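Input.
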Amino acid sequence: MPSLRSLSLVLLVTGALAWLPCTAVAHGVHPHVSSCRAVVVEFGYEDHLPMADERFEVRAPRQESPFLSGQTDSLGRAVFCPDRVGEWTVRVFSQDGHGATATVTVDEAMIAGSAPPRHEHAADGQTPNLVVPGGGIINKLALGIGVLLGIFGVAALLASRNK
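Output.
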């Protein structure tokens, strides 16, 4: 039958290990709102219905991989903010095999119209901080204290065993 000390050691180590994943997933997310001159390309079927909720890809000039991929909105629009001049290609693909390609010429005036990043602030003037559950300062403090107590508890248990 296991001794009380052995059970205490197992519970202590298990409790300390149970808290470790919290530090791995806890992090803050900081949104940054900015504006740009957006390009809107509307796609529709021959019967004038929008190609709503269909996949699309945007390719920048002389770029192999997609600059942006996503889904059209309910009005069949694909929206993107170009970052360079040239011929941009927007392709849309429907599930039933329909598709279309649009070429958009972006000039310097469209790029120059982009505004620098503008940060939205909370009512108290601070940048909003969206935190994953479990990532608050109280949880981090409790985790740190728990880990330290666990380490010293195991050390004390092992030291008493060696006597």
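The chain has two domains: 4-30+132-162, 39-112.
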